[in-house]
Specification:
By secondary structure, the chain is mostly helical. The chain is built from 16 helices and no strands. It has one domain: MFS general substrate transporter like domains (Growth Hormone, Chain: A).
């Protein structure tokens, strides 16, 4: 069984294009975590938890509106080329932010960081929609998502670790310079993938330019419509957004725990965040068990609940070792849930709107992450540091359990639907399709009864 699941994983490792895409994603993830932590620590040093929370919100908030609009590019233009362009813009923006921060132009540095954050927010939607193009089948796609989860976990480990070292050595500007260099390397890695022959989306883009304002708005809203039509997809978007919301709070909580509760230095905040990354790598690697599974809802709910409960326990930890051990579990929970949610979205969203679905999901995640950082000062004032952490974690666990009926109902299909699914499964041309896609086809099929010998399909030469 394990060998069967490892086979598509090895295919991912052997694929030159998938390797290049994952290298670029690793570097962008490292930069995302490192830059965010560096700027939050910098803000915390200037104005405490209040300013740190506000800066975390301000850096993320613009993406709530901009990322869904930018994600249309991924459904209209070659996704690899849009990804390459995003890497270049992020590298330039981080470089500008580093220079401005070194010159004590704090507002300008924050504005440049906002630009970088906007395009960092576009990376995940583009990657989620690009992988089905590059992967050769459903199992390889799930394996590619496992690798993506491992990369995400490695980025959450290496980013804070690098930031922790550089914050001590060169301060926040040094961290941002490293981020700029990393994204420049990511662009170089993506270049051969972006230079490959493209699909016909360019023609669609020309058609899109002639659409009316109303049509353009409908085009932007297509992702929301697709999410609203499927309760499983909607539940996945809600849960992954809630996970990132709690992540936004945890990133501020870790700074608070390191500097105030444990009395450590700024570098320790980066190292503690990196410990969570260790768990994220383990959780992403463990998600290999999802390869070949048709039902992912229960796995997503369980992982989300584990993440929430572990954060609640974090509020009860009082020693550096216990804090570190609990942070490992938090990383395991959110990373496993991330892989499950990504795979679920790829299976349920159509290719024609997939980038927009991921783009809207990313925007909701960004809003949730920014809101999570922003509410930390409020929770701390109301319940104290430890109480705030416990309440935030329990809230996510309760939300996860509330979505459980959605996925339990989806697994109790009626006998006629199951019979139609078996019929469609027997058609050779439908073999590559995932279970949720087959179910959509079966649910939309019209049953037609005809007399024996009646022609059903004619071939014209």
């Amino acid at each position: 069984m394990l060998g069967t699941r490892l086979h598509p994983l090895m295919a991912v490792i052997r694929s030159s294009e998938l390797r290049r895409v994952q290298i670029g994603f690793l570097l962008s993830t490292i930069a995302e975590w490192a830059s965010w932590l560096a700027l939050v620590v910098y803000a915390y040093g200037r104005g405490g938890a209040g300013e740190a929370g506000v800066v975390g919100f301000v850096l993320s908030a613009p993406g709530i509106l901009v990322v869904p609009a930018l994600s249309v590019l991924g459904d209209r233009l070659p996704r690899a080329r849009v990804l390459l362009g995003s890497d270049i813009v992020i590298a330039l923006a981080f470089g500008a932010a580093a220079a401005l921060l070194a010159w004590d132009q704090v507002i300008g540095a924050y504005l440049a960081a906002i630009v970088a954050t906007l395009f960092v927010g576009l990376i995940r939607p583009l990657l989620g929609a690009l992988l089905p193009e590059v992967a050769t089948g459903p199992d390889e796609l799930t394996a590619a998502n496992v690798v993506t989860g491992i990369v995400e976990g490695a980025g959450s480990l290496l980013g804070p670790l690098i930031a922790g070292v550089l914050l001590v050595v060169s301060g926040a500007p040094g961290v941002l310079v490293a981020c700029a260099v990393g994204l420049a390397i990511a662009a170089v890695a993506m270049w051969p993938v972006a230079a490959r022959p493209t699909d016909p989306r360019g023609a669609e883009a020309e058609v899109a330019t002639s659409m009316t304002v109303r049509d353009q708005f409908r085009d932007l809203a297509a992702g929301a419509v697709a999410i609203g039509r499927d309760a499983r997809l909607l539940g996945g978007v809600v849960l992954i957004a809630a996970i990132f919301g709690l992540l936004g709070a945890v990133e501020v909580f870790i700074v608070l725990i390191a500097l105030d509760l444990l009395g450590l230095d700024e570098g320790a905040a980066g190292f503690l965040t990196a410990v969570s990354g260790i768990g994220a790598v383990v959780g992403s690697a463990a998600s290999i068990v999802l390869v070949g599974r048709d039902r992912l809802g229960l796995a997503l709910v369980t992982a989300t609940a584990v993440f929430g409960l572990s954060v609640a326990v974090l509020g009860l930890a009082t020693q550096p070792l216990s804090v570190a051990l609990v942070l490992v579990v938090t990383g395991l929970g959110w990373s496993f849930g991330y892989v499950a949610a990504t795979t679920l979205t790829q299976r349920l969203a159509g290719d024609d709107v997939m980038t927009r679905v991921f783009g809207l999901s990313e925007a909701v995640q960004t809003f949730a992450e920014a809101l999570g950082a922003l509410v930390v000062p409020v929770l701390v004032i109301a319940f104290g540091a430890n109480g705030a952490i416990v309440i935030a974690g329990l809230s996510l666990a309760i939300l996860a359990l509330a979505t459980l009926p959605i996925y339990l109902r989806s697994e109790r299909a009626d006998p006629e639907l199951l019979r139609d699914v078996r019929v469609l499964r027997a058609v050779p041309m439908f073999e590559p399709l995932s279970a949720p896609v087959i179910e959509r086809l079966a649910a939309g099929a019209v049953r037609l009864t005809v007399a024996e010998g009646t022609p059903i399909v004619r071939e014209y030469r």
